[in-house]
Amino acid sequence: MAVSIGTGAINSVISKLNDLLGDEVSSLVGTALLGKKVKLGIQYLRNELSTMKAVLLRLSDMEEHMDPQTREWRDRVRDMSFEIEDYIDRFVQRRRGHGGSQSRGVTASSARPNPVGIDGPREKIFGWLVEQDAKPNVVAIFGIGGSGKTTLALEVYNKIQEQFDCRAFVSVSRTPDIKRLLKHILFQVNEEEYLIIVDDIWSTSAWQHVKFALPIDNNKRSRIIATTRSKNVATSCCADIDGHMYEAKLLTVDDSRSLFFGRIFPSGECCPQELREVADEILKKCVGLPLAIISIGSLLASKSRTVKVWSKIRKSVSSAVEKDCPLDQMKRILLLSYLDLPHHLKACFLYLSVFPEGYYIDSRFLIWNWMAEGLIGGENREDMERLGESYLNELINRSMIQARKIGADGTRVKICGVHDIVLDFITSQAAEDKFVTVLIDGKYPSWKIRWLSLHLNSSEAADLPIKDASHLRSLNIFGPRGKQLPQNCEALRVLNIEGVVKSKNCHIEHIGSFYQLKYLRIIGYQITSPDTTITELPEQIGNLHHLDVLDLRGYRILKLPATIVQLKKLVCLFLDEIFTPLPDGIGNLQCLEELSGINLCNASVRSVEGLGELTKLRALKIKWILGFDRVLDEEDHMRVCASTLSKLVANSLHSLHFTGIKSSDFLNSWVFPSGSSPPPLRRLFLEGVGNFDFPAIPSQIRSLINLTRLSIRYVREMGEEGVNILGSLPMLLSLTILLLYTQRQSCVISSQGFQRLVKLNFHGETCLMFEPGAMPKLQRLKLVVFRWPEQYNPGLLHLSSLKHVSIWNWRRDRGVEDLMDEIRSVHPNHPILDRRV
């Protein structure tokens, strides 16, 4: 079911009215006669709203031409729908007491567009950076927004990175969180020779903060690449450090055509001759801005390839006045792309305005937010998640948002983001539609706020009280400054907080009264003292009967309240994996699909057995860490745990992450017993702890034929048998093996096995030898070797699909340099090379 901002509100109300009609209405209102009258009134209201919904759907397709009176009517209908829903929720709460669509993956050209017109600038900047000055050097790239500054910086970074021991990337943004930014820099950059990109610097003061955090007086050959829109900032970057300034140029006509046609015809076919004239007219309006060309090209890629259709797009772009500056032209193109979106995608797109500039968005959490906000329709959660993924992929394929991290399968987007120019447009459009209100400077608008996002980088915004929270449906808080939550949030569906808390347990005191809450996420990234943390949940949290997602990672929840098992709709529970024991009665949470952050060692036998009753559980992340104050029969307790895990693995688990395994028998005999049918497990992460390591690759892993991702840490020996076990997994895409540094061995990887492997991370002294035809689809290889043997050549030239090679070698052995030179000069793919010491 398609959902827009307005129709989403009406859909929710109609659904709740239907629920009321399905209930015994008289039982809610008192008498049979009154119940009959109320029922007729509910039916009338439902029918009227259904008619209004049909009108709203028609209006959503003519938004650009909507007159002010119609727009005002639309806004009033939407607001009325929210008011009705709030009244229904309050009424039901008081009367009852407190007690599929197929997802299309992202296209390669959308996920990682091939840059054009970049070879010359890249080589010029590369030449500056490789100058043999034994002191830090900076290159400041400046130019208007959307001109490809960050793309150019990353291209240079990828070409030169292997020459530096330490590498980092930080984004500053317009309103930087200076403390977090400096902490990020200090964490990544040390006193060695370093290479760092400092992206999107908006002011000279921000640069001064960054500069003071960088070791620039160490007389070592470090390099800094800075990007900014301001020439003055670029000048400031080069004032105190030797360096060069480079102005990002707009694309030439030929490069513009190459980028434009490459986006529309990704398979390499030529543009039909009859479309070339109108294409050139469209490109003139893009004035050589890569972001504008990609946006309009993505729009045309979804249209019919006819002169009539392309001319209509050209006419729409040309409606901007000729004297518009390039950024105004860019905004006009973004508006055109936005208006072309289906109405259900418009709401999801505008919702991205809640995130701060430069924020890396977890795709799964974004989809869960869309679901909690009612922006995705569907009968069950699985169908809604698939539909949400298709929405995300469609926005990426249209180049409205960016894919920043792709899964090993090459299609699933794990992390996404928004270009700052696009974010400006989204924020402005969302405010115009009275959808999301973003508060940065502490000024509240005059209208009634239902979706609020606070970016608390200033004390002014942090100290401002939230006015009339009774209408709030969504509250997002980002930043290092804590804020006390209001108490009257009865309509709240989404609560997302990232940052420090104002005082101990302050964010959760009143959460038990937020009865409509579906999504609760409080993440701590800067816990400074025991007085600014969360250690417990209130007993009243059991009142949140609509809660789907509860995420409190980063906080030391010492014990969950007994009422947690009353959350019958809870689907995802994420906690700290060291401190939190499994609650008794966990088996009551029959909707639970993901559980992360549980220490089984602290759990009772009853709770561990209850874990095995969760028939819908798909993902489980657990640890076995024995505390000093915990005394138990460890062998018997592990047998109970193994029995539970065996049941889950056989029936429902798709992902298992287990740290602290103490016995190979735990896996081979207990969790993966021989003779059982192949389990549905797709992702497996195993890690030994303490004095335990795996003597060899566990043999029963061979039975996990559905595995796509496998990680095993602390294996004593791999050997030929281990290679055969791993190579026999037919679906494996990603493999990580960490060997203990024992006696050096050799392992030959032949052309047999590993037919689908795309990513390999291998840590250890064992020498891998790749024969011709080995791992035919491997694209990313990481080798971590303490000592690189003389004359050792692993045969990386035999890896025909290789795109990225990373070698970590602490001793700076000469053999690594020779191997890198060979790959650089001979390998036909010219993979990105990354050497670390």
UniProtKB/TrEMBL annotation:
GO terms for biological process: defense response to bacterium; innate immune response-activating signaling pathway; plant-type hypersensitive response. Residues 95-116 are annotated as: Disordered. Residues 354-426 form the Disease resistance protein winged helix domain. One of its GO terms (molecular function) is ADP binding. InterPro entries: Apaf_helical, Disease_R_plants, LRR_dom_sf, LRR_R13L4/SHOC2-like, NB-ARC, P-loop_NTPase, RX-like_CC, Rx_N. Keywords: Coiled coil, Leucine-rich repeat, Nucleotide-binding, Plant defense, Repeat. Residues 471-832 form the Disease resistance R13L4/SHOC-2-like LRR domain. Pfam families: LRR_14 (PF23598), NB-ARC (PF00931), Rx_N (PF18052), WHD_DRP (PF23559). Coiled coil: none annotated. Residues 122-191 form the NB-ARC domain. Residues 9-99 form the Disease resistance N-terminal domain. The keyword Nucleotide-binding applies. Belongs to the disease resistance NB-LRR family. This is NB-ARC domain-containing protein.
